[in-house]
Amino acid sequence: MTATGTASALSLHDVSAGYGAEPVVAHVSLEARRSRWLAIVGPNGAGKSTVLKAVANLVPSQGTVMLDGTDTATLPRKELARRVGYAPQNPALPERLTVTDYVLLGRAPHLGALARESAADVSIVEDALARLDLHELAGRRLGTLSGGEAQRAVLARVLVQRTPLLLLDEPTTGLDIGHAQTLLERLDQLRREDGTTVVTTLHDLTVAAQYADELVLLDRGGVVATGPPSQVLTTERLRTHYAADVDVLTTAAGSPVVVPVRPTDGR
Ligand SMILES: Nc1ncnc2c1ncn2[C@@H]1O[C@H](COP(=O)(O)OP(=O)(O)OP(=O)(O)O)[C@@H](O)[C@H]1O
Protein backbone atom coordinates (compact mmCIF):
# COMPACT_ATOMS: atom_id res chain seq x y z
CA MET A 1 0.00 0.00 0.00
CA THR A 2 1.17 3.55 -0.67
CA ALA A 3 1.55 6.27 1.95
CA THR A 4 -1.58 7.96 0.65
CA GLY A 5 -3.41 4.76 -0.15
CA THR A 6 -5.92 2.85 1.85
CA ALA A 7 -3.68 1.64 4.66
CA SER A 8 -5.23 1.90 8.07
CA ALA A 9 -3.73 4.68 10.21
CA LEU A 10 -6.05 4.00 13.12
CA SER A 11 -8.29 1.08 13.84
CA LEU A 12 -10.42 0.30 16.85
CA HIS A 13 -11.63 -3.22 17.37
CA ASP A 14 -14.35 -3.94 19.91
CA VAL A 15 -13.34 -1.01 22.13
CA SER A 16 -15.26 -0.27 25.31
CA ALA A 17 -14.32 2.66 27.54
CA GLY A 18 -15.67 4.81 30.33
CA TYR A 19 -15.13 6.51 33.62
CA GLY A 20 -16.45 4.06 36.20
CA ALA A 21 -17.71 0.52 36.48
CA GLU A 22 -19.99 0.79 33.42
CA PRO A 23 -18.50 1.65 30.01
CA VAL A 24 -20.07 4.65 28.26
CA VAL A 25 -18.97 3.38 24.85
CA ALA A 26 -19.19 -0.32 24.11
CA HIS A 27 -17.95 -2.62 21.34
CA VAL A 28 -16.87 0.22 19.07
CA SER A 29 -15.02 -0.79 15.92
CA LEU A 30 -13.92 1.77 13.35
CA GLU A 31 -11.12 2.55 10.97
CA ALA A 32 -9.46 5.76 9.76
CA ARG A 33 -7.44 5.29 6.59
CA ARG A 34 -4.16 7.09 6.16
CA SER A 35 -4.39 10.62 4.84
CA ARG A 36 -8.19 10.59 5.07
CA TRP A 37 -10.56 12.54 7.26
CA LEU A 38 -12.92 10.66 9.56
CA ALA A 39 -15.61 12.60 11.41
CA ILE A 40 -17.29 11.10 14.45
CA VAL A 41 -20.78 12.53 14.80
CA GLY A 42 -23.72 11.88 17.07
CA PRO A 43 -25.95 13.51 19.66
CA ASN A 44 -24.77 14.95 22.99
CA GLY A 45 -23.50 12.28 25.34
CA ALA A 46 -23.22 9.65 22.58
CA GLY A 47 -19.59 8.95 23.51
CA LYS A 48 -17.67 10.81 20.78
CA SER A 49 -15.17 12.45 23.13
CA THR A 50 -14.77 9.21 25.05
CA VAL A 51 -13.75 7.38 21.88
CA LEU A 52 -11.06 9.99 21.20
CA LYS A 53 -9.88 9.77 24.80
CA ALA A 54 -9.65 5.98 24.50
CA VAL A 55 -7.36 6.38 21.48
CA ALA A 56 -5.25 8.96 23.33
CA ASN A 57 -5.08 6.54 26.28
CA LEU A 58 -6.72 9.03 28.64
CA VAL A 59 -9.51 6.76 29.87
CA PRO A 60 -9.42 3.08 30.80
CA SER A 61 -10.48 0.95 27.85
CA GLN A 62 -10.81 -2.61 26.67
CA GLY A 63 -10.43 -3.94 23.16
CA THR A 64 -7.71 -3.09 20.66
CA VAL A 65 -6.53 0.29 19.37
CA MET A 66 -4.01 -0.01 16.54
CA LEU A 67 -1.92 2.85 15.14
CA ASP A 68 -0.35 2.01 11.81
CA GLY A 69 -0.51 -1.64 12.75
CA THR A 70 0.93 -1.20 16.27
CA ASP A 71 -1.17 -1.87 19.35
CA THR A 72 -1.19 1.36 21.40
CA ALA A 73 -1.01 -0.71 24.59
CA THR A 74 2.63 -1.43 23.68
CA LEU A 75 3.62 2.20 23.05
CA PRO A 76 5.38 4.30 25.71
CA ARG A 77 3.57 7.61 26.42
CA LYS A 78 6.17 9.76 24.66
CA GLU A 79 6.06 7.60 21.55
CA LEU A 80 2.26 7.85 21.56
CA ALA A 81 2.61 11.66 21.73
CA ARG A 82 4.89 11.57 18.70
CA ARG A 83 2.25 9.64 16.78
CA VAL A 84 -1.03 11.13 18.02
CA GLY A 85 -1.91 14.79 18.53
CA TYR A 86 -5.01 15.21 20.67
CA ALA A 87 -6.91 18.43 21.28
CA PRO A 88 -9.66 18.08 23.90
CA GLN A 89 -12.94 19.96 23.77
CA ASN A 90 -12.49 22.05 26.93
CA PRO A 91 -8.88 21.87 28.08
CA ALA A 92 -7.83 23.49 31.34
CA LEU A 93 -5.32 26.14 30.29
CA PRO A 94 -2.44 27.48 32.38
CA GLU A 95 -3.71 31.06 32.57
CA ARG A 96 -0.38 32.79 33.12
CA LEU A 97 1.51 31.13 30.28
CA THR A 98 1.95 33.17 27.10
CA VAL A 99 0.56 31.86 23.84
CA THR A 100 4.07 31.22 22.47
CA ASP A 101 5.24 29.32 25.56
CA TYR A 102 2.06 27.26 25.60
CA VAL A 103 2.31 26.34 21.91
CA LEU A 104 5.99 25.46 22.39
CA LEU A 105 4.88 22.76 24.83
CA GLY A 106 3.57 20.90 21.78
CA ARG A 107 7.19 20.30 20.73
CA ALA A 108 7.98 18.45 24.00
CA PRO A 109 7.52 14.92 22.58
CA HIS A 110 10.32 15.67 20.10
CA LEU A 111 12.86 16.94 22.67
CA GLY A 112 15.44 14.91 24.56
CA ALA A 113 15.18 14.58 28.36
CA LEU A 114 16.87 17.88 29.23
CA ALA A 115 16.97 19.49 25.81
CA ARG A 116 15.66 23.00 25.19
CA GLU A 117 13.76 23.95 22.07
CA SER A 118 15.92 24.52 19.01
CA ALA A 119 15.61 27.29 16.43
CA ALA A 120 13.73 24.77 14.28
CA ASP A 121 11.16 24.24 17.07
CA VAL A 122 10.68 28.00 17.44
CA SER A 123 10.24 28.34 13.69
CA ILE A 124 7.59 25.58 13.63
CA VAL A 125 5.75 27.41 16.42
CA GLU A 126 5.93 30.76 14.61
CA ASP A 127 4.55 29.14 11.48
CA ALA A 128 1.59 27.66 13.39
CA LEU A 129 0.89 30.99 15.12
CA ALA A 130 0.84 32.76 11.76
CA ARG A 131 -1.38 30.17 10.11
CA LEU A 132 -3.95 30.34 12.89
CA ASP A 133 -3.87 34.14 13.01
CA LEU A 134 -2.30 34.16 16.47
CA HIS A 135 0.92 36.06 15.73
CA GLU A 136 -0.37 39.31 17.21
CA LEU A 137 -1.37 37.44 20.37
CA ALA A 138 1.94 35.59 20.75
CA GLY A 139 2.98 37.44 23.93
CA ARG A 140 -0.46 37.48 25.57
CA ARG A 141 -1.19 35.33 28.61
CA LEU A 142 -3.74 32.56 27.98
CA GLY A 143 -5.99 33.85 30.76
CA THR A 144 -6.58 37.07 28.81
CA LEU A 145 -7.74 35.45 25.55
CA SER A 146 -11.29 35.23 24.22
CA GLY A 147 -12.86 31.77 23.86
CA GLY A 148 -12.10 31.50 20.14
CA GLU A 149 -8.55 32.82 20.58
CA ALA A 150 -7.86 30.26 23.32
CA GLN A 151 -9.29 27.50 21.12
CA ARG A 152 -6.90 28.50 18.33
CA ALA A 153 -3.97 28.37 20.77
CA VAL A 154 -4.98 24.82 21.74
CA LEU A 155 -5.09 23.82 18.08
CA ALA A 156 -1.73 25.50 17.35
CA ARG A 157 -0.20 23.49 20.18
CA VAL A 158 -1.42 20.20 18.72
CA LEU A 159 -0.41 21.14 15.17
CA VAL A 160 3.21 21.81 16.19
CA GLN A 161 3.37 18.27 17.54
CA ARG A 162 3.52 17.31 13.82
CA THR A 163 1.97 13.91 14.37
CA PRO A 164 0.77 11.65 11.55
CA LEU A 165 -2.62 11.35 13.30
CA LEU A 166 -4.69 14.24 14.65
CA LEU A 167 -7.59 13.68 17.05
CA LEU A 168 -9.53 16.90 17.40
CA ASP A 169 -12.57 17.13 19.63
CA GLU A 170 -14.96 19.75 18.22
CA PRO A 171 -12.09 21.84 16.81
CA THR A 172 -14.32 24.65 15.53
CA THR A 173 -16.10 25.28 18.84
CA GLY A 174 -16.05 29.00 19.55
CA LEU A 175 -14.48 29.90 16.21
CA ASP A 176 -16.18 32.41 13.93
CA ILE A 177 -16.98 31.21 10.41
CA GLY A 178 -13.78 32.67 8.92
CA HIS A 179 -11.40 31.24 11.50
CA ALA A 180 -13.28 27.92 11.37
CA GLN A 181 -12.84 27.76 7.61
CA THR A 182 -9.15 28.66 7.87
CA LEU A 183 -8.60 25.89 10.40
CA LEU A 184 -10.52 23.26 8.44
CA GLU A 185 -8.69 24.14 5.23
CA ARG A 186 -5.35 23.94 7.06
CA LEU A 187 -6.25 20.47 8.33
CA ASP A 188 -7.27 19.43 4.83
CA GLN A 189 -3.98 20.74 3.47
CA LEU A 190 -2.05 18.68 6.06
CA ARG A 191 -4.07 15.67 5.01
CA ARG A 192 -3.41 16.15 1.30
CA GLU A 193 0.21 17.31 1.40
CA ASP A 194 1.70 15.57 4.44
CA GLY A 195 -0.49 12.47 4.53
CA THR A 196 -1.83 13.40 7.96
CA THR A 197 -4.85 11.41 9.06
CA VAL A 198 -7.53 13.62 10.60
CA VAL A 199 -10.14 12.37 13.07
CA THR A 200 -12.54 14.98 14.42
CA THR A 201 -15.75 15.04 16.29
CA LEU A 202 -18.08 17.61 14.73
CA HIS A 203 -21.58 18.76 15.55
CA ASP A 204 -22.06 20.69 12.33
CA LEU A 205 -23.13 17.90 10.00
CA THR A 206 -22.94 20.05 6.87
CA VAL A 207 -19.33 20.96 7.67
CA ALA A 208 -18.60 17.32 8.52
CA ALA A 209 -19.96 16.32 5.10
CA GLN A 210 -17.87 18.99 3.36
CA TYR A 211 -14.56 17.87 4.81
CA ALA A 212 -14.79 14.25 5.94
CA ASP A 213 -14.35 11.29 3.62
CA GLU A 214 -16.18 9.11 6.05
CA LEU A 215 -18.57 9.56 8.97
CA VAL A 216 -19.10 7.35 11.99
CA LEU A 217 -22.43 8.01 13.67
CA LEU A 218 -22.47 7.15 17.36
CA ASP A 219 -25.53 6.95 19.57
CA ARG A 220 -25.73 5.79 23.19
CA GLY A 221 -22.16 4.57 23.15
CA GLY A 222 -22.36 2.46 19.99
CA VAL A 223 -21.75 2.83 16.27
CA VAL A 224 -25.06 3.03 14.42
CA ALA A 225 -23.84 3.97 10.93
CA THR A 226 -20.56 4.25 9.03
CA GLY A 227 -19.86 5.39 5.50
CA PRO A 228 -19.54 8.35 3.17
CA PRO A 229 -21.50 11.43 4.35
CA SER A 230 -24.08 11.09 1.58
CA GLN A 231 -24.98 7.62 2.83
CA VAL A 232 -24.90 8.29 6.56
CA LEU A 233 -26.81 11.59 6.64
CA THR A 234 -30.42 10.74 5.95
CA THR A 235 -33.51 12.52 7.22
CA GLU A 236 -34.72 9.33 8.90
CA ARG A 237 -31.43 8.69 10.71
CA LEU A 238 -31.20 12.22 11.99
CA ARG A 239 -34.75 11.98 13.29
CA THR A 240 -34.06 8.65 14.97
CA HIS A 241 -30.73 9.51 16.57
CA TYR A 242 -30.94 13.28 17.15
CA ALA A 243 -34.73 13.65 17.47
CA ALA A 244 -34.29 16.39 14.89
CA ASP A 245 -36.52 17.53 12.05
CA VAL A 246 -34.22 18.21 9.11
CA ASP A 247 -34.12 18.28 5.35
CA VAL A 248 -31.03 16.84 3.75
CA LEU A 249 -30.31 18.77 0.54
CA THR A 250 -27.46 18.09 -1.87
CA THR A 251 -25.04 20.62 -3.35
CA ALA A 252 -24.11 20.56 -7.03
CA ALA A 253 -20.90 18.82 -5.94
CA GLY A 254 -22.97 16.08 -4.29
CA SER A 255 -22.25 17.08 -0.69
CA PRO A 256 -25.17 16.80 1.76
CA VAL A 257 -26.45 19.97 3.44
CA VAL A 258 -28.42 19.45 6.64
CA VAL A 259 -31.08 22.10 7.16
CA PRO A 260 -33.14 22.24 10.36
CA VAL A 261 -36.88 22.44 9.68
CA ARG A 262 -39.13 24.13 12.21
CA PRO A 263 -41.98 21.88 13.29
CA THR A 264 -45.32 23.10 11.93
CA ASP A 265 -47.45 21.30 14.50
CA GLY A 266 -46.95 23.91 17.24
CA ARG A 267 -44.51 21.79 19.28
N1 LIG B 1 -15.34 12.48 33.39
C1 LIG B 1 -16.51 11.83 33.30
N2 LIG B 1 -16.99 11.12 34.35
C2 LIG B 1 -18.17 10.45 34.27
N3 LIG B 1 -18.93 10.41 33.15
C3 LIG B 1 -18.51 11.09 32.10
C4 LIG B 1 -17.28 11.83 32.10
N4 LIG B 1 -17.13 12.40 30.89
C5 LIG B 1 -18.21 12.04 30.16
N5 LIG B 1 -19.04 11.26 30.88
C6 LIG B 1 -20.30 10.66 30.41
O1 LIG B 1 -19.99 9.77 29.33
C7 LIG B 1 -21.00 9.84 28.33
C8 LIG B 1 -20.36 10.16 26.99
O2 LIG B 1 -19.74 11.44 27.09
P1 LIG B 1 -18.90 12.08 25.91
O3 LIG B 1 -18.28 13.31 26.42
O4 LIG B 1 -18.01 11.02 25.34
O5 LIG B 1 -20.06 12.38 24.85
P2 LIG B 1 -20.03 13.25 23.51
O6 LIG B 1 -20.66 12.41 22.46
O7 LIG B 1 -18.65 13.73 23.24
O8 LIG B 1 -21.01 14.42 23.92
P3 LIG B 1 -21.10 15.99 23.49
O9 LIG B 1 -21.64 16.02 22.09
O10 LIG B 1 -22.12 16.51 24.47
O11 LIG B 1 -19.74 16.60 23.65
C9 LIG B 1 -22.00 10.91 28.79
O12 LIG B 1 -23.10 10.27 29.37
C10 LIG B 1 -21.25 11.69 29.83
O13 LIG B 1 -22.11 12.20 30.82
UniProtKB/TrEMBL annotation:
It holds the Pfam family ABC_tran. It comes from the Bacteria. Keywords: ATP-binding, Nucleotide-binding, Translocase, Transport. InterPro entries: AAA+_ATPase (IPR003593), ABC_transporter-like_ATP-bd (IPR003439), ABC_transporter-like_CS (IPR017871), P-loop_NTPase (IPR027417). SMART domains: AAA. One of its GO terms (molecular function) is ATP binding. SUPFAM superfamilies: P-loop containing nucleoside triphosphate hydrolases. CDD domains: ABC_Iron-Siderophores_B12_Hemin (cd03214). Gene3D superfamilies: P-loop containing nucleotide triphosphate hydrolases. Residues 10-245 form the ABC transporter domain. This is ABC transporter ATP-binding protein. It comes from Prauserella alba. The lineage of its organism: Bacteria, Bacillati, Actinomycetota, Actinomycetes, Pseudonocardiales.
